[in-house]
Amino acid sequence: MATTTDRPAHLRSLSPTTAEVLGEYEIADDNAVRAAVARARAATEGWTGLGFRGRRARLLAWKHTIAAGLEELAALIAAETGKPVGDAVLEVMLAVEHLHWAARNAGRVLRRRRVRSGLLAANQAATLEYRPLGVVGAIGPWNYPVYTPLGSVTFALAAGNAVVFKPSEHTPGTGAWLGAAWARAVPDQPVLQIVIGAAETGAALCRSGVDKVAFTGSAATARRVLAACAETLTPVVVEGGGKDAMIVAEDADLAAAARAAAFGGFGNAGQTCAGVERVYVVRGVYQDFLARLSALAQAAEPGAREPAAYGPMTTPAQIDIVRRHVEDAVARGAQAVVGGPASVRPPYVFPVILTEVPEESPAMTDETFGPVLVVNPVDSLDEAVSRANASRYGLAASVFSADRRTATAVARRLRTGAASINSVLGFAAVPSLPFGGVGDSGFGRVHGADGLREFSRAQSLTRQRFAPPLDLMRLDRDPAVLARARKLFLLRHAGRAR
Q1: Considering the entire predicted model, what is its pTM?
Q2: What does the pLDDT look like over 281-313, one tens digit per residue?
Q3: 273 has catalytic annotation
């Protein structure tokens, strides 16, 4: 078993396209992680004391710094992940919109408010407010190294917490850039600390005494995070990936549906947890849809530079998963309409469209996380919903239909945390909407009002305004008072329902 001294002291960030070294970063060991948490905790009192207005001003200053550094940050994201610079620009833009919303709406969502006391407590003034948790540990992914982790980081900061952020070991430079931007924008508030490393650093963060952990990654890694956090009963919010389905009705705009499927399935090399991996098309329009989607896939090629449709796979391990899923599906009798096993040409995977894939195959049950779309026909929307829901994942989905009522009804039947009608990923651009999943896609929410409350604790306060007319909360309770209270109770609750 390796000891602490056997571990490397530095982490190299490598280009997924050329394998060149982009930068070296000091790895945070257990002591460094605990020190970062201690610095963050020491800063919480001053940060909380600023109030919502003070925090808003500083978060907006950070927002301005990130926005002003758009080109530099996007180039860094593109270098570390391999995605086109244009995609990286879009990622930063979306992240900044969410940061802007969190900064400006935290006071409205979390402020103290009066609530009704009810009949038995009519003499009590009742208020509810949301207090910061303290220090939040955020463990980010590599596929969207700004947009995804900032969904936790910025909402936790806006709620009044300090944050210790561990970026993915594949995108350490992006995480370091965000931390440096905070230090420039808000030098007097060291409430954002960055720790860099791989699994050992993440495990140390889970055991460091933070008040909550926000994790984004695979369901398998999420289970290890939960096990580590269980040792100290540290609560966790998890976004654990998806196997998202698109449903195409017979009356759908097929051109629009095909474009959306191509974007959701092939964009970012398919490395999008809320993208599209499974498509269920009503049989009457199945061939027409498949022809349109195939034409788009055949025109889309990956590459190192724009105008490539997408870049290389970010990690070699993911290439192996994609290869296994495609080969297994073909071995089970699936048809490769576009591409196939030969589409895997490291570091790239060219677009793959599989049809007639058995529902029990890994390509249908497990997260492929690559530019592979499975398109299966169904006889009805009911069958499509049944197949879409037959998954242990439940992050997001999309429905295409010209009938708004039908599409909405279908979307509401889907066991997912989010759904888009006649688009994909529409919810990702709406800062006021919460985001999260069910099942192996995780639990808890980021973004929106729910995201702010996710990083807060509800505190209920009562203040007695006058002596109770029927005083029941005492050891020497008057039997006559209890008798009157009983009569009132029966009159109120045991009579005819109303």
Answers
A1: 0.95
A2: 999 999 999 999 999 999 999 998 889 999 999
A3: yes
